[in-house]
Structures are given as C-alpha cells and as structure tokens.
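Q: What residues go here?
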C-alpha cells in the first residue's frame, strides 16, 4: 500500500522537539503572567473577511498566502495566518473593553500561510502572540518590547538585534504616501517588479516590503516615513526610545521597516537573530491604534507582537538534553513476579515516578538492555523466587551498585529512594 505523507510545509513536531516547545511555552506563560497578561484561546478558522479587512487586501498574506475555502455550507473561511485579528474579533465580540480599561492577552498556537517552504519558513507554524489593548502611552510600547526581549533571553536566545521604526498615523500618511508615489514614479517606473508597479497605486507602503532585489535597491533611496511624522507621533517615538534606553534595551532604527501587515501605526519592531539564515525574523510586532474600531469595536488603541516558535527553537543550542529519561525499570521474571510488577509499575506512576516494565517475560539480560535503552536510572529486579523470599534487588543502572529491598516495602521504599536522590 502506498504511504500517505504530510502536506508540504506542514511539519510533525516529534517528541524530542515537543519537549523544547513545552519548555519555551512554559517560560512564556510564567513571564507574561508577571506582566499581567492572561491567556485567550481563539479558533484557528475565521470568516475570510476578518483577515481581509485587518491585514489588508493588498498585502502578500491576503493576496497570495491564505488558506481560504468555501465549506460545505458555502461559508467563506480562512485558516488564520496570524492571531491579532482573531484576538481583536474576540475582544470586541465579548465586550472585553467594557470590563477593564487595559486588557492584556496572549495566545499560543498554529498559524497557516501558503508561502514557499524553506529553512525557517513553513506553511503551518506556531506563534506565541501577545496583545495589549487600551493604552497608548509610550511606556506601554516599551513595556511590551521589554517583555519580548526578556522572554527571548530567558528562553536562551542571545544573538538578537532589535529594530524599531515609527509608521506614523492617519495624519502622517497623507503626506508620506504622495511623496513615496512621486519617488516611485520618478525613480522606479519600469524597474519595479509587476507587483510593486501595481502597488504604486494600491498600497505604496508595501513596496518597502518587497524582497525583489531591484525593488529593494530602489527603495533604499526612497523618502523615510520618520521624516514625515506629525508632532504627536514624533514625540511618541522619541519617548519610546527614551523608555527603552531607561530599561537598557539596545535597539537600532530601521527606517525601511514597514512590516508585512497593513494595520500598524506608530511603533513597529522586529527582532532578528544573527544565527539564522535568510528567514532571520524571530519576532515582530507593533502598535495598531485604528484597528479595533476598523473591525467594528470602540476607539481603543492596541499594541502586540508574535514570536515564531520554530525559529526561536532553531536558535537554541543543540544540547541533546531532550532525551527521554525513565526513573525506574521493573524487571520481573516469572508469572507471579510479572503480576506483582504490573501493579507496582502503575503504583509508582501514580506517585509521579516515570516507571516502565516489559510484559513479555524476557530474560533478565534482555530486560536490563531495555532499561538502558529507556535511559532508566534504576532497575528493580525480582523473580518468583525473590517474591517468595521477600527480597527484591535495586540496581543503579549507571554505577551498577545493587542493594536489596524488602518486597513488602514496595513501592514505598522505591518512591523514597527516587525522590531523595
Ligand atoms: P509576523 O511578522 O507576520 O507578525 O509574524 C511574526 C513571526 O512569526 C515572525 O517574526 C516569524 O518568526 C514567524 N513566522 C511568520 N511566518 C512564518 C512562517 N511561514 N514560518 C515560520 N515562522 C513564521 C504577525 O503575525 C503579527 N500578527 C504580530 C503582531 C501581533 N503584531 C501585533 N500584534
């Protein structure tokens, strides 16, 4: 029979890697909690319209990358390419803004983008996503960026570069966009890729995001949005930088960074790792002050970020610390001993001990070999004869030292020894 394989760009996370995911997620949960963030779990599928409206009709994500389909009831649905839109939808739908002035939320889970798969780029990938609603003060931008950097460092990432920019607001854009269009028409016409030619009229800011080399070299000389900031956005950006300095967060300003989603206003940021290849963005985020109202909610400011879990994990040193370890292997010889071992193994597990046994009544040598394979620290050995004599053997699998344990004291004495080691 022909094998059925996974879909291209969709990857299994095998047990040795899922341990690392679990560790990273636990660090995130603990840190976010101390900053007052609470978990929200949103569906992985939404009405297509939600992403079209929030991310932007003319972004790469919406134009080319979404998994969109009609279900059997002809509803137009999309597997979420990111979590921000879904969280805002939930925030509005559950009137969360009415309950508290500031709402801090995070979610962890899979996102879907039909990009060309390559190292660090998948079609299903996991994000740790954070959103804060209701605060527009520059301290909150610095708080969110500080939390992100603190989390990445705590997860074990060091070689990081934080880049920030300001994308202005509805007051700055009407001055900036015509300047970019003018520049592109004069300098770029005829040399830009077909997508960017089209973007001149539909969404000129997106040209900044183009990965085609000729477009990137043209954009290098384009007007910078930070030269067009209104006084409020300029003051906000300057204060964000000052608060980041106060928190000893180093950063550089990347005036070309616009981020791939349309909803950003004011502060935008990206964290890159110097140890990753082409797909070096570990995290990205920014402020989106108009988005909640644009999706039908009240005028509430927001800021957030998302970390790509697979990329974060790819930056971690390969410690091989994830090999599964067993505390104790129960090696039983004979019918009566096997029966006793079955109860004992499960009793030990109930006490939180990682215990294993073999049901096939193999030779002692074969059973000890299995204990080694399972990376077991100890083996408890007994046969029908030892049960009669009421003495079992406890063997340290590393030092090979052995001691006897009264059968009547099992599992109590084993639990004690294992917990005290
Ligand atoms: P994003 O920059 O599109 O932002 O994605 C955030 C992170 O997800 C990236 O920095 C990267 O690490 C990871 N990522 C993105 N695409 C892929 C992929 N195809 N394969 C593997 N990893 C990937 C957002 O998604 C925004 N929603 C972030 C945000 C939250 N802004 C405000 N709040």
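A:
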């Amino acid at each position: 029979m022909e094998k059925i394989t996974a879909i291209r760009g969709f990857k299994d996370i095998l047990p040795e890697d899922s341990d690392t995911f679990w560790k990273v997620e636990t660090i995130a949960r603990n840190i976010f909690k101390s900053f007052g963030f609470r978990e929200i779990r949103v569906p992985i599928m939404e009405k297509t319209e939600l992403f079209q409206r929030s991310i932007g009709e003319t972004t790469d994500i919406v134009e080319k990358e979404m998994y969109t389909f009609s279900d059997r009831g002809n509803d137009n649905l999309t597997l979420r390419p990111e979590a921000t839109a879904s969280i805002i939808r939930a925030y509005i739908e559950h009137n969360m803004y009415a309950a508290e002035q500031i709402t801090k939320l995070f979610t962890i889970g899979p996102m879907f983008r039909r990009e060309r798969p390559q190292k660090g780029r998948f079609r299903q990938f996991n994000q740790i996503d954070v959103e804060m609603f209701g605060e527009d003060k520059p301290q909150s931008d610095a708080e969110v960026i500080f939390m992100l950097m603190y989390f990445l460092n705590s997860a074990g990432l060091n070689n990081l570069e934080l880049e920030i920019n300001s994308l202005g607001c509805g007051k700055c854009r009407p001055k900036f966009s015509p300047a970019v269009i003018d520049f592109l028409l004069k300098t770029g016409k005829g040399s830009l890729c077909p997508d960017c030619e089209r973007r001149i009229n539909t969404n000129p800011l997106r040209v900044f995001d183009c990965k085609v080399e000729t477009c990137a070299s043209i954009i290098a000389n384009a007007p910078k949005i930070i030269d067009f900031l209104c006084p409020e956005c300029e003051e906000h950006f300057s204060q964000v930088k000052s608060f980041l300095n106060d928190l000893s967060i180093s950063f550089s300003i990347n005036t070309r960074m616009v981020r791939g989603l349309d909803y950003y206003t004011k502060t935008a940021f990206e964290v890159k790792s110097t140890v990753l290849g082409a797909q070096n963005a570990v995290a990205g985020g920014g402020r989106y002050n108009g988005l909640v109202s644009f999706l039908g909610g009240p005028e509430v400011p927001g800021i957030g970020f998302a970390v790509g879990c697979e990329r974060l994990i790819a930056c971690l040193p390969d410690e091989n610390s994830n090999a599964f370890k067993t505390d104790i292997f129960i090696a039983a010889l004979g019918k009566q001993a096997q029966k006793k071992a079955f109860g004992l193994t499960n009793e030990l597990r109930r006490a939180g001990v990682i215990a294993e046994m073999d049901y096939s009544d193999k030779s002692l040598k074969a059973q000890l070999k299995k204990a080694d394979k399972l990376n077991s620290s100890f083996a408890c050995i007994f046969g029908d004869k030892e049960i009669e004599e009421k003495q079992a053997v406890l063997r340290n699998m590393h030092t090979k030292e052995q001691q006897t344990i009264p059968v009547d004291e099992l599992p109590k004495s084993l639990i004690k020894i294992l917990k005290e080691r």
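A: Context that may help when evaluating the design: The chain has a mean pLDDT of 95. The pocket of histidyl-adenosine monophosphate is lined by residues 82, 84, 113, 115, 121-122, 125, 127, 129, 131, 260-261, 281-286, 304-306, 308, 310-311 (CB under 6 Å).
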